[in-house]
Design a protein that fits this description.
Layout: E1 3-4, E2 7-10, H1 14-23, E3 29-32, H2 41-44, E4 49-50, H3 59-69, H4 76-95, E5 121-122, H5 128-142, E6 146-149, E7 153-160, E8 163-170, E9 176-180, E10 183-186, H6 207-214, E11 219-220, E12 225-232, H7 244-248, E13 252-254, H8 262-265, H9 274-288, E14 292-295, H10 301-307, H11 309-317, E15 327-336, E16 339-341, E17 353-355, E18 360-361, H12 374-391, E19 403-405, H13 421-431, H14 438-461, H15 467-488, H16 506-509, E20 512-515
Parallel strand pairs: 1-9, 2-3, 2-10, 3-6, 10-17, 16-18, 19-20
Antiparallel strand pairs: 4-5, 7-8, 8-9, 11-16, 11-20, 12-15, 13-14, 14-15
Helix pairs in contact: 1-5, 1-12, 3-4, 4-12, 6-15, 13-14, 13-15, 14-15
This protein binds flavin-adenine dinucleotide and succinic acid.
Succinic acid is lined by residues 46-47, 243-245, 335, 371-372, 374.
C-alpha cells in the first residue's frame, strides 16, 4: 500500500521532529525514517544546544561568534534568524519539559565550548541530544495527525512538471512504495559515513544530498567538512566523541610527554575553533611520531564522572578511566557545513522540496560551524520550513549568494568494479580529509567519477536493489560532490584546508561553490 499525507517529512532527528510537530497543526503528516526512529545524529549529540539566554549574553554576541567561526562565508541574514529565533525555540524546549542541567539556584547551567565568547550552551549532562529527542518524541507520539513509518528507506524523489511531488521508498520487507504529498521536507541529516574515521552513526550516509542532487536541486558548500579534534582512538574500540565541553571545563590536549601543546600552534589554544585544533594535533603527532591525548587529570574526578557519565562509560568500555588516564584522541569527520541549498524558509531550488537540519545549507555556518549551533539550526529551520510548507509558499526567483560552479562532471564508461563502502570511505579519508592538495583531490575526483559511473550502471541493471548497493551509490555521489568542490576551492578557509593553498584568498574565494546536476 502506498502512503499519502498532506506533508511528508524524511528523517526523524531534531529537524524532522520539530517540523512534524509544526506541520501537524495544519494537516496530516507522514514521517519516513530509514532505521529505528531514534537512530540519528541528534540522538548522539553530547555538548549541547547554543542559545543567547544567559545573563551576560545577547543575540548580537551569539551572531558575532557564529560569523567569526564561519570564517567569512556565513549569510548574515540566516545567522540573524538562527540566533534570534533560536533563543525563542530553545525556551520552548524548556517549556516542553527538556531537562537541561541547572545550577543549585534553579537557573540554567550554561556550558562553555570552543570559540564561544561566553558560557552559552544548554546541556543535559553529556547526552543533550538524547534528552531533546525524548521530549520531541513524547509530543510526536501523542499527536494524532503524525504517522511515523520506520524502516522506510527513501530511495528517490519523484519529480513531476518540474516540482517534487513525493518519494519512493523501500519498506521493511524491501517492497518499493510511493509516498506523495503537497510538500516534502528532507531532514535526512549528515554524511559522516563518507569518511573512514567519523563520529557519526551508520545512518549518516548523505542520502538526502544524493537524492536531491539527482533530482536537480542545487547543492552548495560541500567542500566544508568539520573534523572534530577529540575522538577516542583506541584500537578495537568504537571511535567515540569526547565532547568539546570537556575542554570547556578545562580538559587539555597533551603530547606523549604530558606537555600541553596547542597554544604553540594557535593563540587561542585548546579552545580555538575545531579545524585549527585538529590541525595542531596532526602537526604535533607528526612532529613527535606519537599519539596525542586528552587529559582531565588536573580536574576533580567526582565532577568529571558526574558531568560526563556517557563519555566516562565509553572510556570504561575501552579499558580507560576518563578522570585518571590520558585518553588517546585524533580527529574524525563530524559535521557537514554544506548541503542542499535553501533560502531562509528551507525552500530548495526544486519547487515542492524543502530541506532543514544538517542536510541543508541555509548559510548559517559558512565555512565552519560554531559548536552547538547544529541542534539549534535543526530546531529553528525545521520549524521555519514547516511554516513555509503550510503556507504553500513558493518563490519565483530563488535568491542565492555569489557562487562559482564545481568542475563539470565528465561522462565516463563504466567498465570498472564498484568498491564496497570501506573502499570509498578509505579514499575519502586519505585524499579529501583534514589536509588536502591538488594532487590528492584530482586523483580522488578521477577515481570517484569512474566508480560513480559504474555504480549507476549497476543500479540501472538491477531490478531488486539491495539497501547496501544504494548506500554505496549515495556515499559515492556525496564523496564525489565534496571532492569536486574541494578541488575547485584553491584557498584554505574554515574546515577546508589545502596544503598547496594554505592562506585565505578573499579576492577570489569569498564566494560559494555550488552545483546543480544536468538532467537528461
Ligand atoms: P539527524 O539527527 O541525523 O536525523 C536524520 C534522520 O534521517 C535519521 O532519522 C535518519 O535515519 C534519517 N534518514 C537518513 N537517510 C534517510 C533515508 N534515505 N530515508 C529515510 N530516512 C533517512 N550538534 C550540536 O549542536 N550540539 C552537540 O552537542 C552535538 N554533538 C554531536 C555529537 C555527535 C557524536 C554527533 C555525531 C553529532 C553532534 N552534533 C551536535 C551534530 C548534530 O547532532 C547534528 O548535526 C544534528 O543532530 C542533525 O540533526 P538532523 O535532524 O538534521 O539529522
Ligand atoms: C561536542 O559535544 O563536542 C559536539 C558539539 C557539536 O558538534 O556542536
Amino acid at each position: 500500500m502506498d502512503v499519502r499525507g498532506d506533508f511528508l517529512v524524511i528523517g526523524s532527528g531534531i529537524a524532522g521532529l520539530r517540523a512534524a510537530l509544526a506541520l501537524a497543526d495544519a494537516g496530516d503528516v507522514v514521517v519516513l525514517t530509514k532505521a529505528d526512529p531514534a537512530e540519528s545524529n541528534t540522538g548522539y549529540a553530547q555538548g549541547g544546544i547554543a542559545a543567547a539566554l544567559g545573563p551576560d549574553d545577547s543575540v548580537a554576541l551569539h551572531a558575532r561568534d557564529t560569523m567569526a567561526a564561519g570564517d567569512g562565508l556565513c549569510d548574515p541574514a540566516a545567522v540573524d534568524v538562527l540566533v534570534r529565533d533560536g533563543a525563542r525555540y530553545v525556551q520552548e524546549l524548556c517549556d516542553w519539559g527538556v531537562a537541561f542541567d541547572r545550577a543549585p539556584n534553579g537557573d540554567i547551567a550554561f556550558a562553555r565550548e570552543a570559540a564561544h565568547s561566553v558560557r552559552r550552551v544548554l546541556h543535559a549532562r553529556d547526552a543533550t541530544g538524547r534528552e531533546i529527542a525524548r521530549a520531541l518524541w513524547a509530543r510526536v507520539a501523542a499527536h494524532p495527525r503524525i504517522r511515523v513509518c520506520d524502516d522506510a528507506l527513501v530511495t528517490s524523489l519523484i519529480v513531476r512538471d518540474g516540482g517534487c511531488v513525493g518519494v519512493t521508498f523501500a519498506d521493511r520487507e524491501g517492497a518499493v512504495r510511493v509516498a506523495d504529498a503537497h510538500a516534502t521536507l528532507l531532514a535526512t541529516g549528515g554524511a559522516g559515513q563518507v569518511f573512514r574515521e567519523t563520529t557519526n552513526p551508520a545512518v549518516a550516509t548523505g542520502d538526502g544530498i544524493a537524492m536531491a542532487y539527482r533530482a536537480g536541486a542545487r547543492v552548495r558548500d560541500l567542500e566544508f567538512v568539520q573534523f572534530h579534534p577529540t575522538v577516542m582512538n583506541v584500537a578495537g574500540a568504537p571511535r567515540f566523541l569526547l565532547s568539546e565541553a570537556l575542554r570547556g571545563e578545562g580538559a587539555r590536549l597533551v603530547n606523549a610527554e604530558g606537555e600541553a601543546f596547542v597554544s604553540r600552534y594557535d593563540p587561542d589554544g585548546d579552545l580555538a575553533p575545531r579545524d585549527r585544533v585538529s590541525r595542531a594535533m596532526v602537526r604535533e603527532a607528526q612532529r613527535t611520531g606519537a599519539p596525542v591525548y586528552l587529559s582531565v587529570q588536573h580536574l576533580s574526578p567526582a565532577f568529571i564522572h558526574e558531568r560526563f557519565p556517557t563519555i566516562a562509560q565509553a572510556c570504561r568500555a575501552a579499558g580507560l578511566d576518563l578522570a585518571r588516564d590520558l585518553i588517546p584522541v585524533s580527529p574524525a569527520a563530524h559535521y557537514m557545513m554544506g548541503g542542499v541549498a535553501t533560502d531562509l524558509f528551507g525552500q530548495t531550488s526544486l519547487p515542492g522540496l524543502f530541506a532543514a537540519g544538517e542536510v541543508a545549507c541555509t548559510g548559517v555556518h559558512g565555512a565552519n560551524r560554531l559548536a552547538s549551533n547544529s541542534l539549534l539550526e535543526g530546531l529553528v529551520f525545521g520549524a521555519r520550513a514547516a511554516a513555509a510548507m503550510v503556507d504553500g509558499r513558493e518563490v519565483s526567483v530563488w535568491p542565492e549568494p555569489p557562487c562559482v560552479s564545481a568542475p563539470a562532471a565528465r561522462t565516463l564508461g563504466a567498465d570498472e568494479a564498484v568498491p564496497d563502502d570501506a573502499g570509498v570511505r578509505d579514499l575519502m579519508w586519505r585524499q579529501v580529509g583534514l589536509l588536502r592538495d591538488a594532487e590528492g583531490l584530482q586523483s580522488a575526483v578521477s577515481t570517484l567519477e569512474r566508480w560513480e559511473a559504474a555504480s549507476q550502471q549497476r543500479l540501472a541493471r538491477t531490478v531488486q536493489v539491495e539497501p547496501a548497493v544504494r548506500r554505496t551509490a549515495n556515499l559515492l555521489m556525496v564523496g564525489l560532490l565534496m571532492a569536486r568542490a574541494a578541488l575547485r576551492r584553491q584557498e584554505s578557509r574554515g574546515g577546508h584546508f589545502r596544503t598547496d593553498f594554505p592562506a585565505h584568498d578573499d579576492v577570489h574565494w569569498k564566494r560559494h561553490v555550488a552545483e546543480t546536476a544536468t538532467l537528461p
